[in-house]
Amino acid sequence: MIVVILGAPGAGKGTQAKMITSFLAGSTLISMSQVIRDEIASGSQDGSHLKLVMDQGHLVSDQIIVNILSKKLMQYDLSSTNLVFDGYPRTLYQASYLNDFVVKHNINLCIINLRIADQLLIERFSGRFICSECGASYHNVYHLPKITNHCDYCHGSEFYIRNDDKVEAVQVRLGLYHDNINPLLAYYEQNNLIHNIDASAKVEKVFENITHVLMDHNAFARQFRQ
After folding, report:
1. Looking at the annotation, which residues are catalytic?
2. CATH 1.10.10.10 fits 2-117+192-221, yes or no
3. What's the sign of the alpha-carbon dihedral 112, 92, 193, 28?
4. What is the pLDDT of residues 154-182, one digit of tens each?
């Protein structure tokens, strides 16, 4: 099965993706931001192109994203591995590729959409801090590490605050997000694949609601249909 986590910046995609990966047996988390970093570090032709494009401040083309994801997927035995996607797909082109992929390989697809009001997201950003080692996201009100200054996932002890977590920057990001995500949500809704989860609740409650979806037989059995 492939589980896709959708949601606005700050909705908790990264945190929930890690928790889902721990919950589902035989699961692997595929974070597209990490896949891109790994590709650049590899020095491959696609990696060199990625670095050039990103250094120039341009958007990476869908075709390049699909190319590097295809290479990544070849590393797994899809008959026995559950994949959890964080940061993919982001466009209709990317969703179309994933559609073709799951149909070709006869894989179940479950789409989780974390829904939350923009104003609450803006409030969340002001207290967010991130693990320098694995990228796990925390908040000084909503989601503290279980042990102070100690990441729950990789046990790292260094954290940082993003420079773009300011109100004006967040408002711009959310506007762009909605422009891009609305066609993608409509695409999945037409195929009855999307499960909307209230992401305004506490992390544990959001995860509980997601597990209910994942344990639902229909979520496992429903195939993506063209």
Report:
1. 13, 90, 128, 162, 173
2. no
3. negative
4. 999 999 987 777 777 788 888 888 998 99
